[in-house]
Amino acid sequence: MAKTTGKAKTVYVCSECGNESPKWVGQCPACGAWNSFSEEVVQPEKPNPTVSLPPLHRQTPKRLHEIDAENEARTTTGISELDRVLGGGIVKGSLILVSGEPGIGKSTILLQMCMKMKDMRILYVSGEESPRQIKLRADRVGTYPENLFLLSETDVSTVVEQTETMAPDLLVVDSIQTMFRRDMTSAPGSVPQVRECTSELMRLAKEKEIPTFVVSHVNKEGAIAGPKVMEHMVDAVLYFEGERSSDHRILRSIKNRFGSTNEIGVFEMTEQGLREIPNPSELFLLDKPENVSGIATLCVMEGTRPIVAEVQTLVTKTPFPSPRRTAVGFDYQRLNLILAVLERRCGLFFGASDVYVNVVGGLRLDEPAADLGVAVAMVSAVKDFVLPEKTMFIGEIGLAGELRAVSNVEKRINEAASLGFTRCIIPARNRPKGNFSAEIVPAYSIKDVLNKI
Ligand code: TYD
Ligand code: MG
User: Fold this and answer.
1) What distance lies between CA 47 and its chain's CA centroid?
2) Ligand 1 atom showing the smallest separation from residue 140 Cα
3) Hey, which bits of 65-161 come out as E strands?
4) Atom from ligand 1 closest to the CA of residue 273
């Protein structure tokens, strides 16, 4: 925050990332967001009377081996997909941000979690809904626990006070954009308010060792401060994603001080709240069209879990000189690379065609092992032939057109076999160990794969 002395000063703050500028700018130079700057008045900093007081527990440096890691014990949330994303459960005193677009299900998953953690005293603070509204939602999703307390409040100091009085085992604040500090002039949801309220809750979580979940909305219009403003402060950031048109929801961790950020949790929004999908491959393969060109199945690792996904491609002739390349759920640069390899190493021509790639079910393929599936889907689309049924394509493609080895190939094959796939085309360098119920077809290059299918 800009240092000021004397009188109040006006600055412009990016609602996406919190970057400050003395003048209004159309595009944020730090994060590239458009139209995200809004005016904020920065009050001169007053001396904080609490700072000069001696801290309650003065800390002294400790030897590494003296530190007791026992208090890192995790509490399970009762929702195993959520536990997985958190890295095994909730760590004491951690501040966890749950963000996503409005209406995606953030309040629902947190309420469901609270209702499952029956042994804990929980305080659920909502600045958006009245206790009655929350109760109506609770009626839909489960049975009431004895120790769940609701509080409708937007003043963060009252929240802190109530939490200190009640001393719950878990605190939920829904949402940070509705919270405000009375001593600040800016509106709730503005960058300074969100930042200050988060650090207040952070202090509370650390001092009292109360694990805290904080909801944050992602707003495309940039009128309210986005989660990026808080990401650096909190211990974990979970993103709840999904398309409005479908019921699938994916919970992804993009930062986790206490676990891996690779894991995803998969849910389905039903009439009775969110349902866990322990075997997501089945979901992503549902309604797979038959006898259509341009469709391939592949297997990616999401953390420790193999997930089978379907990729759909469409290649259409275009009269325009610069053809379109559109990728949903797949990296755009990677798509261009694969197209270049197919052109140079397999003699296929995409220069006069638009290419569309879509990964079904809102999944994002971040792993190079998905290359082969995407490549064969595009070959199938451009040549208009249907790929063989029940065949899985696994492999990373190099610039020479060679198939490069992938990690965890046995896990991927077993996942495919368990879903009824009878053939797995894999990089020849992989040499998987063990007996598999699916036929293993090793291949050296993308050209080799095209000869073998
Ligand atoms: P909500 O958790 O309120 O979203 P957020 O807190 O992220 O804004 O979820 C709202 C949506 O979920 C709403 O469109 C209704 C739907 N929903 C169901 O389909 N089934 C349910 O059991 C519940 C509680 C909500
Ligand atoms: Mg909500």
Assistant:
1) 39
2) 22
3) 74-75, 90-91, 95-100, 122-126, 148-152
4) 22
d(CA 85, CA 82): 5
CA of 217 to the centre of ligand 1 (A): 14
CA of 309 from ligand 1 middle (Å) equals 26
Per-residue b or e along 293-313, where b marks 16 or more CB atoms closer than 10 Å to that residue's CB: bbbbbbbbbbbebbbbbbbbb
For each of the chain's 453 residues, which pLDDT tens digit applies?
444 456 778 889 888 888 889 999 999 898 888 888 888 877 766 655 555 455 555 678 888 888 776 656 789 999 999 999 998 899 989 999 999 988 899 999 999 999 999 889 999 999 999 999 999 999 998 888 889 999 999 999 999 999 999 999 999 999 899 999 998 888 888 888 999 999 999 999 999 999 999 999 887 665 567 778 888 899 999 999 887 777 889 898 889 998 877 788 999 999 999 999 888 887 778 777 888 999 999 999 987 889 999 999 999 999 998 999 999 999 999 999 999 999 999 999 999 999 999 998 778 898 999 999 999 999 999 999 999 999 999 999 999 999 999 999 999 999 999 888 999 999 999 989 888 999 999 999 999 999 998
- Domain layout of the chain by residue ranges: 9-42, 74-278, 283-452
- Which ligand 1 atom sits closest to the C-alpha of 240? 7
Instruction: Kindly report the number of other CB atoms within 10 A of residue 288's CB atom.
Output: 13
What count of other Cβ atoms lies within 10 Å of the Cβ of residue 326?
13
**Angstrom distance (rounded) from CA 223 to CA 358:** 31
Ligand 1 proximity of 326 Cβ (cutoff 6 Å): no
Architecture of domain 74-278: 3-Layer(aba) Sandwich (3.40)
Among 269, 271, 272, 276, name the best residue to mutate to test ligand 1's pocket (greatest count of ligand atoms within 8 A of Cβ): 269
The span from the CA of 17 to the CA of 35, in Å, is: 12
- Ligand 1 binding pocket includes 135 (Cβ within 6 Å): no
**CATH architecture assigned to 283-452:** 2-Layer Sandwich (3.30)
Instruction: For residue 217, report the distance from its CA to the centre of ligand 2, in Å.
Output: 8
CB 269 near ligand 1, within 6 Å: yes
Does residue 401's CB lie within 6 angstroms of at least one atom of ligand 1?
no
The atom number, within ligand 1, closest to the CA of 269 reads 19
Pick the atom of ligand 1 nearest to 104's CA.
7
User: Rounded to the nearest whole angstrom, what is the distance from the C-alpha of residue 121 to the centroid of ligand 1?
Assistant: 24
Pocket test for ligand 1, best of 99, 108, 126, 139 (most atoms within 8 A of CB): 108
Query: pTM of the full predicted structure?
Result: 0.79
**Phi, psi torsion values for 212, nearest 5 degrees:** -130, 130
